[in-house]
Design goal:
The protein contains eight helices and eleven strands. It is of the alpha/beta class.
């Protein structure tokens, strides 16, 4: 089940602690976790603050509830339900939902997110204009967040082991992401080689895209 859902359970205690430490948690923080699995990360989070976790798999949700009675576990598809208010999001994400989850996250009001992502996807967040990986993920992330790539995580830190390495990514929110801007850039990048003045769409910086959007 875990592999079918793109979910790999973190089993390395040192890595789990590093993820939690990276979020700088305070007792008053409200934390959202997506895909808690059996609750290994959830348990560490619950020691420091209030945690709400959303788990799609009903059996895993029951296990997490039993393992971490101090956390609120919601059985639902995180991409389809409304999220409760939160200050920080800390998650070892199922790889299959990374892009859709991130775009949903960026439209919420939050202070910080610490996410474990597939290394290749994490690197897309840092892609520059003109790079083949430069697209909506990088643009939206940098339009509203300061993005940091933290520690890389080897395959053997998970069960079952993924076929790729992973990376811890930290996002610090700096501005709200307007739904209109999201739609505008998504439509533009369906024709990423189209010329806009002297540049192709794929060569426009985040600042240039924001200016074009605001100019209407």
């Amino acid at each position: 089940m875990a592999t079918r859902l793109g979910q790999h359970f973190m089993i390395d205690g040192k890595v789990l602690k590093k993820i939690v430490d990276s979020a700088g948690l305070k007792a008053e923080d409200k934390v959202l976790e997506i895909g808690p699995g059996e609750g290994a990360l959830t348990a560490l989070l619950a020691e420091r603050c209030r945690v709400t976790a959303i788990e799609k798999d009903e059996n895993l949700a029951k296990i997490a509830s039993k393992n971490v009675p101090g956390a609120k576990i919601i059985t639902a598809d995180a991409l389809k339900v409304n999220w409760p208010p939160f200050d920080k999001c800390v998650s070892n994400l199922p790889y299959l939902i990374s892009k859709k989850f991130l775009l949903k996250l960026l439209q919420h009001d939050f202070e910080m997110a610490v996410l474990v992502l597939q290394k290749e996807f994490a690197e897309k967040l840092m892609a520059k204009p003109g790079n083949e990986n430069y697209g909506v993920v990088a643009i939206f992330s940098h339009a509203c967040c300061d993005v940091e790539l933290l520690d890389k995580i080897p395959k053997n830190a998970f069960r079952p082991q993924p076929h790729v390495d992973s990376q811890i990514v930290r996002l610090r929110k700096k501005a709200a992401l307007e739904k209109g801007f999201l739609d505008y850039v998504t439509n533009l990048f369906q024709r990423r080689n189209k010329k806009m003045g002297e540049k192709r769409v794929s060569q426009l910086t985040v600042r240039e895209l924001l200016r074009l959007y605001k100019c209407g």
